[in-house]
Amino acid sequence: MKPDGIPRFLLLCLCAALTFFALPWETGAEDVVYSCSTVGKKIALTFDDGPHPTLTPEILGILAEYGVPATFFVVGENAEWFPGIVKAEAEAGHEIGNHSYSHANLKKECYGEICREIDGCERAVWENFEYRTRLLRPPGGCLSDALVQAAGERDYTLVCWSVDTRDWAHTPTETIVKKVLDSAEGGDILLFHDYISGGSPTPGALEILLPELLRRGFEFVTVSELLESREK
Ligand SMILES: [Zn+2]
Predict the structure, then answer these.
(1) Which of 73, 82, 115, 161 has a CB 3.0–4.6 Å from the CB of 51, allowing a cystine?
(2) Catalytic residue among 48, 49, 167, 188
């Protein structure tokens, strides 16, 4: 059929539909949380890549010692290996977030694989004790339009960080402590890891940072609590 033969109304509808579906899905700053503008000195500790059979319990012990809540972004495969530790995190009042099933670089994956990674981690946590993850931290903080789309469809909030302690690179404890104490502000999201091979500076840094940040008037909250306290 020649275009002239298509009624003008249908042509307009067709053009509108093509334009809508052809629009690129822009990954903008509004799609991802890096920090929050909050009233007061609320701050969120986050731990990625766990659970780890010994490091995670050690960190849980330090958090309990100071009565500090945190958010654990777990890897689905690790959650399947150590379900009891994930359960212990939740039972201690910590928040559980989704860090993909296999710690894949989701920026390089197609939409279908991204969905499988998100859903696989969510399932690993849910089947353990019916806890539904709501926060998604992409491995490496690597983002893509397809990832933003998949997260949005599943009602996930994408969460990165405002302070990277670089504990994953075996940064010396004193360097981590100095960086956090020099830069921490209310509304910050601090990135730590509870799965680091070859020795971790994280427990040592926490033992110094937690009492000092409390002394300075910071209030530790989970990421969801930080989001809820956002200034309107
Ligand atoms: Zn990670």
Answers:
(1) 82
(2) 48
List pLDDT tens digits, range 83-101: 999 999 999 999 999 999 9
Residue 27 is predicted with a pLDDT of: 54
Neighbours of ion ligand 1 (CB under 5 A): 48-49, 139
Residue 60 belongs to domain with CATH number: 3.20.20.370
Its domain, for residue 53, covers 30-228
Pairing mode of beta strands 135-136, 157-159: parallel
Number of domains in the chain: 1
Query: 30, exposed or middle or buried, with CB in 10 Å at 0-12, 13-18, 19+?
Result: exposed
Q: Count the neighbouring beta carbons within 10 Å of the beta carbon of residue 174.
A: 12
Does residue 94 have an active-site annotation? no
In a domain, 11, yes or no: no
Among the listed residues 108, 107, 106, the one whose alpha carbon sits nearest the alpha carbon of residue 120: 106
